[in-house]
Automatic annotation (TrEMBL):
Pathway named in the protein's UniProt entry: tRNA modification; N(7)-methylguanine-tRNA biosynthesis
Organism: Yaniella flava
Descriptive protein name: tRNA (guanine-N(7)-)-methyltransferase
Binding sites annotated in the UniProt record for substrate: 191, 223, 292-295
Transmembrane segments: none
UniProt key word Transcription regulation: no
InterPro entries: SAM-dependent_MTases_sf (IPR029063), tRNA_(Gua-N-7)_MeTrfase_Trmb (IPR003358), tRNA_methyltr_TrmB_bact (IPR055361)
SUPFAM superfamilies in the record: S-adenosyl-L-methionine-dependent methyltransferases
Classification via CDD domains: AdoMet_MTases
UniProt biased composition (Basic and acidic residues): 1-11
């Protein structure tokens, strides 16, 4: 699982295979291009590549023998099978889930995106055994750790998919199937030149809007004030979402005011007037969201935590 300070990966143009992922497939000239991909001419012929940089860098996949066995035993059941045409974390268009068949019954679906070691999924699923949970992550050892807990504690309402989240939303999740989408501590990509790798962008919100039921929720948390601002701006500008906590914590008590006042992200404190966040809109901490290892690290570093909850409007 990458840490915040490991994001110095070289930039790749969209005509190259996605950073950290395996090379894309070789399409025939007539093969249709699925959502999220584009065809490009290369010296070696036409290739299908993602149409935007991915939000992750794939890291070593080492797992203990026990975890590898567990992974194999649960592949096809708790670990959902995925058809992959264009690379190891890709999702082919024919992968749409049948929710009732996949979980064995119909229940509100919560999709947890970029789960890391799965602490938030596990806490949510055990607090709400009456709901179905889908954990989405590209980092297999993280999912395997969650699987270990799921297996040893006989948790039956979690399914997992090892794949790129935008493609899971495009190709696996049916329209209006989800009650909630969670994105907690999404990689902040602090350097300006890598901001295009951030997950929370208008196009990603279009995907979330498609899979959420009307009235459904997207819950976000981050420890990075600049990213928190971008999340709030992008959600406020999106016609399918409304803030459930407009103006909350606006002014001196805003975590954004405090982060800017103390310069917690970049070591450059602003004056009171410059730091003031007059907009607010920060949500209370979501009840089942645990303090994960990522959040604990952010807290130790003195960073503020930002929660946002927006509702899918009709
Ligand atoms: C900073 S960690 C946060 C983990 C966890 N949500 C938490 O709160 O502790 C972000 C995780 O998102 C995963 N990730 C980033 N982009 C992703 C994508 N496009 N699809 C699936 N997982 C992704 C990374 O592999 C990483 O494990």
């Amino acid at each position: 699982m990458p840490a915040h300070n490991h994001h110095d990966a070289p930039e790749h143009s969209s005509t190259q295979p996605p950073s950290g992922d395996d090379p894309t497939g070789q399409p025939s000239a007539t093969q249709p291009v699925p959502a999220g991909y584009q065809k490009v001419e290369t010296r070696d012929g036409v290739k299908i590549v993602r149409d935007a940089p991915v939000s992750f860098v794939r890291r070593e996949l080492a797992m203990s023998a026990n975890r590898q066995r567990l992974w194999q035993d649960h592949t096809g059941t708790t670990i959902l099978p995925v058809s992959r045409l264009f690379g190891q974390t890709s999702v082919a268009p024919q992968s749409q889930l049948n929710i009732t068949e996949t979980w064995g019954h119909d229940a509100p679906l919560i999709i947890d995106i970029g789960v890391g070691h799965g602490e938030s999924t596990f806490a949510g699923a055990t607090a709400h055994p009456d709901k179905n949970f889908l954990a989405v992550e590209v980092y297999r050892p993280g999912l395997a750790k969650l699987l270990d807990r799921v297996d040893s504690e006989n948790v039956t309402n979690i399914r997992m998919v090892e794949a790129n989240a935008p493609e899971v939303l495009d190709h696996m999740v049916p329209e209006h199937a989800a009650a909630e989408v969670w994105v907690f501590f999404s990689d902040p990509w602090p350097k300006t030149r890598y901001h295009k790798r951030r997950l929370i962008q208008p196009k990603f919100l279009d995907r979330v809007a498609r899979v959420l039921q009307i009235g459904g929720l997207i819950r976000l948390a981050t420890d990075w004030s600049h990213y928190a601002m971008q999340m709030r701006d992008t959600l406020d500008a999106h016609p399918a979402f409304k803030n459930l906590h407009p103006s909350r914590l606006a002014g001196k008590t805003s975590p954004l005011t405090l982060a800017r006042l103390h310069g917690t992200d970049d070591g450059t404190p602003l004056s009171e007037a410059e730091a003031l966040d007059a907009i607010g809109g920060w949500a209370p901490r979501f009840e089942t969201r645990p303090v994960t290892s990522f959040e604990a690290k952010a807290q130790r570093a003195g960073r503020y935590i930002f929660d946002l909850t927006y509702q899918r409007t009709d």
